[in-house]
Design goal:
homodimer; 346 residues; alpha/beta; Four Helix Bundle (Hemerythrin (Met), subunit A); Rossmann fold; 2 domains; seven-stranded mixed beta sheet; four-stranded mixed beta sheet; 11 helices; 17 strands; globular
Chain lengths: 346, 346
Amino acid sequence: MNDGVHAVAWTYGALTLLDQRRLPGETVYLRIDDVDGAIDAIRDMVVRGAPAIGIAAAYGAVLAARAAWRAYGAGWKGPWEADLERLAGARPTAVNLVWAVRRMRHLGLDLPDDQDPEPALLDEARAIHAEDLAANLRMGELGAALVDSRCGVLTHCNAGALATGGYGTALGVIRSAWKEGKIERVYADETRPWLQGARLTAWELLQDGIPVTLLADGAAAWLMKQGRVGWVIVGADRIAANGDVANKIGTYALALAARRHGVRFMVVAPTSTIDLSLASGEDIPIEERPADEVLELGGKRVAAAGAEAWNPAFDVTPAELVDAIVTERGVLVHPVHECLVDLMQD
Amino acid sequence: MNDGVHAVAWTYGALTLLDQRRLPGETVYLRIDDVDGAIDAIRDMVVRGAPAIGIAAAYGAVLAARAAWRAYGAGWKGPWEADLERLAGARPTAVNLVWAVRRMRHLGLDLPDDQDPEPALLDEARAIHAEDLAANLRMGELGAALVDSRCGVLTHCNAGALATGGYGTALGVIRSAWKEGKIERVYADETRPWLQGARLTAWELLQDGIPVTLLADGAAAWLMKQGRVGWVIVGADRIAANGDVANKIGTYALALAARRHGVRFMVVAPTSTIDLSLASGEDIPIEERPADEVLELGGKRVAAAGAEAWNPAFDVTPAELVDAIVTERGVLVHPVHECLVDLMQD
């Protein structure tokens, strides 16, 4: 099965990232061989998408361990933990980053001090990567099964192969449902300010031969009013214990419009995205990114000189507006709160 | 009183338009001396904004009459009416265009066949222009009076001096309320795909020394969730007899979010925007503009090759989501239906 493009890979002993800032114009891979390179790549959005960030960070933890082992030998764990802390803080909202770093740390601290930690850590990073891909394939099946009649679907940002270990979360469901003939048309918000929809989602779907119709973010409610959409299908960056969902800015507005029009709202995310330590979405830290992302476009200033900008990268959709959360362990239907806790205890 | 920049003027015997496609980077005025130039300028959005389109069309009708009189003498009216029909069809949604052309036609057909019609028609076009400016100043007062406690306001697209005969509709209210110290902060959606918010509204407000914070359209609902906005204030392109409001794409999503958050929603439009011939917003023709406006930015392709786009230029906000319609003849508060008919009968 084709799992789409590869945003993150471990090749020739280093982390290789497809530079998502330059798509779709250029397909450029960056080779990253130290943890600072991994941190910069996450912060600067060379790699983006909650699961892909987690996987990149896992490989980053391998690079950090390699350097610490070379520099400090049996004393590698202290400096390594300091690197992990910086790695986990590269971006604040997606919890998969923290989850992956914590998993690497857990394994690493159990390793003997006097052996090269790289082989065992690399195995763990590869496991995180492979599990994510497998989770996406499973979520693709589960989510597609929810689409009970042929309809148009709307997605936001890019929750595809580019945002994950492969196949995608929201786009995984769309790939599976498309194959099953359940989708009339895929609509994608262009997703300002970073244009993940126009640049990444359209690129990725077209590579798989799935036609896609872009629209300005402001047009999505009007699209739903026309009756052209049966499901909104999105990914997530963090899901709180009560089912509130942090995802790319603009998702909340979609959920409001979906509820108004009887359009169903599906969130597709692996359990690594679920953060039971936070009671509700109010506790999720929301990253504010530089104003220039709004004031500029493609490096060129578009806004009037002197204008300021407010640029939150994410928003929170309350659980009450979510009809289904699809995870690799199963589907939670509205209301999700108690099922979510049960699911994580399995 | 400063009425802001001048988007439309009649100077040295011709129509002069500020080319709004090139703002804020360049301030270029185009001289237009025939009706085809006026039609092209309206269609290509050299001039945009419902009232400004109406004023430009009125001057365009003068240019058409001049040419018809020169070519046909006493037989000028037939060819002139044909030109007026093309002029009225340059863009479909804003009713001010049809309204202005009809008013010019009404006056013109009453003129004697054997006299140069230009002086009388130019007087009428100038009256339309002056009345629009006066209406905006009046609406500024009336709308500002509705803002009963100091708050943040959010606007969409550009309903300012650039979109009108001067001062602006929504931005006229914002100018007046700002002067009265009632506004904490002006937020402006960037308004994709044409970026009227980032390019025009920010430019225009900053020229008047009013600070403005831009945001991606998808962030507006999240801004309201933060409690930062007391009023959404927008213009309109056409208002149906039941109070449904056609305005720039994205307005409907704002109205949904505003209702959710208890934010009030004000539409500011002169009575020339009201079309009692249409029972509801369902009858308003919605212009679909070229896909390239979404697929490109500043003439540069941003979307993946092969992607399609759906690009409706307007949407319709149902009357039930509108808290107040401010016209130069008075303010209608929710529910507006019966008051609207009464207002137009005054």
